[in-house]
Amino acid sequence: MEDDVPQVQRQTPPPPIIPATTPPLITPPPPPRPPRKGSGWMKVAVVLGILLLLSVLSNLGHLVHSVTVKATAGRQARAHLEEVTYENNHSKNKIALLDIAGIITSEAWDRSGSSLVDLVSDQLRRAGEDDSVKAVILRVDSPGGEVLASDEIYRAITDFQKDYKKPAVASMGGLAASGGYYVSAPCQWIVANELTITGSIGVIMHSYNYRGLLNKVGVRPEVFKSGKFKDMLSGEKNEDEILPEEKQMVQALIDETFERFKKVVAEGRKRANEQNGGEGRKLADDWGDYADGRVLSGRQAYELGFVDELGNFDTAVERAKDLAKISNANLVQYERPFDLGNLFRLFGETDSRAVTKGARAERDLPVRRFQCRAFFSLPVFFAITRVSSFRLSGWRAFQR
After folding, report:
1. Where in the sequence numbering do the catalytic residues fall?
2. What crossing angle do the helices spanning 147-164 and 116-129 adopt, rounded to 10°?
3. Which of 12, 123, 153, 348 has a Cα-to-Cα distance from 255 of 20 to 30 A?
4. If you average pLDDT over each of 42-56, 209-223, 243-257, 296-310, which comes out highest?
5. Best CA proximity match to 178, nearest among 215, 208, 151, 158
6. CA–CA distance from 161 to each of 128, 139, 262 (Å)?
């Protein structure tokens, strides 16, 4: 009867009850903001305000510059120089430091109209009028520059020593070649480092003839001139159109400038030797043989008598004190202060200045007649390592 007994079936336990997770709440995006009323007008107002500010600055520039020009009878007034102490040695005596660096040019450095020639002349005048300044040191690091600019600095240094009876010492840096030596020649004493590059006494003029290129592209110039030499050495001319007289005249200009250079060197070194009582170096008898454009090291220049002493800037300072017969001195420099008028001139210029620029631009519109350029320049090797080219404006000779 066992079959009639009901069997107890095993029941599996029910699965655990997992509470349902709360669904994430999704925040609806905020409603778009309505556009601000008048925002477009605000932008327009800001733009108009900026334009108004620029207009005010421009007008101030016109006013400041025109007043200055009128006060100086058409020439920009020279800025006041501030004295800055370079080295304070607690002395009542001073030695003024003047820097002649880079290209020597009479071109204006900025819109104020001042140039390196103006700055050096003003500094020499300031040093001469100050009784506490006993000597001047010219720190020269230049490949040269314009013939006229170099000659004006040369004359300013010569007149300074003559009028104020104060010595000028040239301290040559890494490079004081050609025009750089030209401005050093009138100094009573010249100090150079053994590795200074100097010399390069000579003149070169070169031109580019591009008539062959014009012929290839089918361009034929039409020239109307008042005289046969008005387009002298023009790059547009065929080789057979260049007159022999043109080359002779250009060579005569080169020779004349070269003779002036040699005269400056000879007179400057002779005068320095006389002032120093024969203590400095005297030019060698054959120094002219080395005035053929070659560059010289500081030691070579010393042996030939182009410089008086080998040393550095400290050597020049000690020599300046010795020539001025003082035992100690403060080293000072003269700098132009910040001029707010120069800032204004960045935004405006006078009508006269604009007319001048317009006339200059009109003059430069035709192809330049003179493509030849005269230089007192370094050789090409040194020109690569130093800035030794400067654009000529018109017929201008350059010293380097």
Report:
1. 178, 230
2. 0
3. 153
4. 296-310
5. 151
6. 9, 17, 21
* Residue bearing the bigger pLDDT, 354 or 143: 143
Residue at 279 is within a domain = yes
Q: Are 155 and 182 in contact (CB under 8 A)?
A: no
pTM score, whole prediction: 0.70
3-state secondary structure of 114: coil
Give residue for tokens 């200074």. Answer: 196
What CATH number is associated with residue 156?
3.90.226.10
Q: What are the distances in angstroms from CA 106 to CA 77, 86, 206, 247, 391? A: 16, 27, 22, 28, 13
| Inside any domain, residue 35 | no
Torsion of CA 380, 386, 388, 390, to 10 degrees: 140
In a domain, 40, yes or no: no
Tens of pLDDT, residues 330-383: 999 999 876 655 555 544 444 434 333 433 433 333 333 334 445 565 654 444
Tokens of 383: 């020109």
Long-range CB contact pairs, 348-356, < 8 A, 24+: 348/57, 348/58, 348/59, 348/60, 348/61, 348/62, 348/65, 349/61, 349/62, 349/65, 349/111, 350/62, 350/65, 350/66, 350/69, 352/69, 352/74, 353/65
Structural domains of the chain, count: 1
pLDDT above 80: residue 324: yes
Asked if the structure places residue 50 within a domain, the reply is: no
Give the model confidence (pLDDT) of 97-126 as tens digits. 999 999 998 887 665 567 899 999 999 999
**pLDDT over 90, % of the chain:** 45
When the pLDDT of each residue in the chain is averaged and rounded to a whole number, the result is 78
DSSP strand pairing (133-146 vs 397-399)? antiparallel
Show the domain range for 189. Answer: 79-341+369-399
| Both structure tokens of 3 | 């079959």
